[in-house]
Design goal:
Structural class: mainly alpha
Helix content: 55-70%
CATH topology: Methane Monooxygenase Hydroxylase, Chain G, domain 1
Number of helices: 16
Largest sheet: none
Radius of gyration: 24 Å
Order of helices and strands: HHHHHHHHHHHHHHHH
CATH architecture: Up-down Bundle
Strand content: under 5%
Number of strands: 0
CATH class: Mainly Alpha
Shape: globular
Distance between the termini: 62 Å
Length: about 300
């Protein structure tokens, strides 16, 4: 096909596209005459992105801390993007499910190995100084990570282990939210008193969380897995992918985070306390809460030893 014939074919397809939208094709074509050519920095919004790292102190390594956490949030956004495609897919196939799940797992694999940037990339003395300006903020307050949890599993698997027997699918979402495992990081269960860490977090995100919990209560990754034909649910490769994701998020990634926190908080320059004042060791370590997205895919022995590796 000649170049002229290709151009005519493209123009015909454009005409069909804009006719279907009741739009004037000529307006769009004329707009191309005056539009600026696209550049990498305009498309990625590089200038805006690089203007978001604002230090609160003069310590150089605070820049590492800020940029690293912003990168994490961008990766979390990519993970949620992939999960939403599984959740909203009308004709869900095993191949589609598995390919998306492995993408998500690769993102978490990258997050896991990247913790060396934090563990080895900051001077403990500098961190020990600038971290005090972050109080009462904490990585605990990553709303996107909570959304990843809500969209991955049945809500009961995110409930504090002490209260799971008292909660079921008929429990109001507001009540379930009050008994999620991460509430233990900011609440005194004897007095019911919440720390500012938790109070600020809920003030900003509570309504969004409840809406999201309701939405994914019927289309989280586990339920979408159960929507597949029985033969697909028995697929060894798909089960392996599900287990890999579960283990990576709830043990491998968590332990990498835990070790990085231990390096600074329990090191000689640390004071043993997280910036948000949480009981971070019992909140973070998987052996305490036994967070498991897909418990039916693990043996009793594996679940009993969860987090003890």
């Amino acid at each position: 096909m000649s170049n002229q014939a290709k151009h005519i074919d493209i123009l015909k397809k454009l005409q069909e596209k804009y006719d279907a939208q009741s739009e004037d094709t000529e307006n769009y074509l004329e707009g191309l005459l005056y539009g600026k050519s696209l550049t990498y920095w305009d498309y990625i919004h590089t200038d805006a992105l690089l203007s978001l790292q604002t230090q609160r102190t003069t310590y150089p390594d605070e820049m590492v801390f800020i940029a690293y956490h912003q990168i994490n949030e961008l990766i979390f956004k990519m993970i949620l993007w992939e999960i939403s495609q599984i959740a909203d897919k009308k004709e869900l196939s095993r191949d589609f499910f598995e390919s998306k799940l492995m993408r998500i797992s690769r993102y978490f694999d990258m997050l896991t190995t990247s913790f060396n940037i934090m563990r080895e990339g900051m001077d403990p003395k500098q961190y020990g100084k600038f971290r005090h300006t972050l109080t009462p903020a904490s990585g605990f307050q990553s709303a996107q990570f909570r959304l990843i949890e809500f969209s991955s599993t049945e809500l009961i698997n995110l409930i504090d282990a002490r209260f799971r027997e008292t909660i079921d699918r008929n429990t109001p979402f507001e009540h379930a939210l009050e008994h999620l495992y991460w509430q233990a990081a900011g609440k005194d269960y004897k007095s019911g008193q919440k720390s500012s860490l938790l109070t600020n977090f809920e003030k900003r995100y509570k309504e969004e969380f409840i809406t999201f919990m309701k939405t994914y209560n019927t289309k989280n990754l586990w339920l979408r897995f159960k929507d597949l034909p029985q033969k697909d649910q028995e697929s060894k490769t798909l089960i392996k992918a599900m287990r890999h994701y579960d283990y990576t998020v709830n043990i491998t990634w968590v332990m990498a985070h835990y070790k990085a926190a231990t390096h600074y908080i329990l090191g000689k320059e640390g004071n043993g306390e997280a910036t948000g004042g949480s009981d971070w060791q019992k909140y973070m370590h998987p052996k305490y809460q036994k967070r498991i997205f897909f418990p039916e895919l693990w043996t009793k022995e594996e679940k009993d030893n969860w987090g003890h590796q």
